[in-house]
Amino acid sequence: MKLYYSPGACSLAPHIAAREAGIDVELKKVDLKAKQVDGSDYKQVNSKGYVPAVTLADGSVLTECPVILQYIADQKPESGLAPKPGSMERYKLQEMLDFTTSELHKGMGTFFNPALTDEWRKAASDRLALRLDWLAKQLEGKQYVMGDKFSVADAYLFTVLNWAPMVKFDLSRWPAITDYHKRVGQRPKVQEALKAEGLVK
Hints:
Blueprint: E1 2-5, H1 12-21, E2 26-31, E3 36-37, E4 40-41, E5 53-55, E6 61-63, H2 65-75, H3 88-109, H4 118-139, H5 152-161, H6 175-185, H7 188-196
Parallel strand pairs: 1-2
Antiparallel strand pairs: 1-5, 2-3, 3-4, 5-6
């Protein structure tokens, strides 16, 4: 499996998940500004032009972070990274993945926009704060978002929360979230992925 990534982007989530599952992936670093990978047009791999994407042994391509995460988990069900397909627990996992992608990823991602005005930033911050209020309540008394076991939802949530310092969004008012972020960040496989992408030494 080849994983097309950009350091620290949402592609970090499937990178973490693959390491947690014990799946070997070939990392392919994408220049997102130039839309290039290995000197070629990245849009030939993913016509959407963004990461992540994975190419599989048969040449097929998967895109979109929540889909790739579930695919990785299903390759190694014994890893426990996702509940059994069709179970209520699996639907709860999908619910958290969808919440992360639609509310947190898009919300936090807004702050990377160079055209962001002060008014736009405040409106986006207020909306994101409401989502984080909800998330903090969900994390109270839990090790991970699904309970006591790490899942692909944690790989994704950790990745999005990791952007907060880069965009100067202060998470300190949500100690349940900052404690969670620190806890996930200390996992050996998470550290491996961060080091491989040059995000930590």
